Amino acid sequence: xxxxxxxxxxxxxxxxxxxxxxxxxxxxxxxxxxxxxxxxxxxxxxxxxxxxxxxxxxxxxxxxxxxxxxxxxxxxxxxxxxxxxxxxxxxxxxxxxxxxxxxxxxxxxxxxxxxxxxxxxxxxxxxxxxxxxxxxxxxxxxxxxxxxxxxxxxxxxxxxxxxxxxxxxxxxxxxxxxxxxxxxxxxxxxxxxxxxxxxxxxxxxxxxxxxxxxxxxxxxxxxxxxxxxxxxxxxxxxxxxxxxxxxxxxxxxxxxxxxxxxxxxxxxxxxxxxxxxxxxxxxxxxxxxxxxxxxxxxxxxxxxxxxxxxxxxxxxxxxxxxxxx
Length: 325
Hints:
Helix content is 32%, strand content 23%. It has helices spanning 28-32, 42-55, 66-70, 83-95, 113-122, 137-150, 217-231, 248-264, 285-296; strands at residues 3-12, 72-77, 127-131, 156-163, 177-185, 197-206, 236-243, 268-270, 277-278, 300-305, 310-317. A hairpin with a 4-residue loop joins strand 10 and strand 11.
């Protein structure tokens, strides 16, 4: 079955010239209308903006109903979506007591809240799932969506990610963001826009440490071979690898293992030696890289690696041509 990326959107914070400019990068009213979002966390607002934009709808448009809603799902990856909410609640409870917390704020305590709000807004009734692994959760959302489509759980899925970087991470160059891609099973509407890309597959692995302290060589080789197989191409493959600074050695080793496996299969690799994309937007970073690769076109492998050894990879191919089985 072919799984297509039919649309994508993102809202991302970038370094501001001054600290005073930083809070003003995102205007909720411009994306969500004038009402209905006051008690949503920033990460929820970002997700609603990106998800609805990818779907070509407004937040206040009527949600899907009937069969279309029953066959439509939402899956969201996040790392820090509710970290600030938890810290605020902890501070209020220890200083003011429970009376300092508004009942309208309480639902924001759940990690599922951002994704659930997107599901409510869009009318998704097939499923609403939240994934929370550090760094890799954005690409894991795509992998989950592909599996759901291929197993018949839905006909269309929004795979998204959202994060609000913790305040104590601001100095390390992490920024807020959300991104979303719309995936569908089949070939899409003949009269619609050309799909961005086909997803050839995805996988997640844990790379355990080896006796020498680095990643286990056997696990690394096996992971590289499996990732290379996702490309399903024998020509040039774009290899995109991202992770936080602390994961750079592991990401580099994973990239080298994948590049070797691709070369052994006769594929040329477009990947500057030693280039690791810094995951500046937390778990959203991998999804942002995926969107860029899809828009660029051609075979690509997008990989996210965490400091703890988790790795997720998604393969992309040309959306026009034989089905990917």
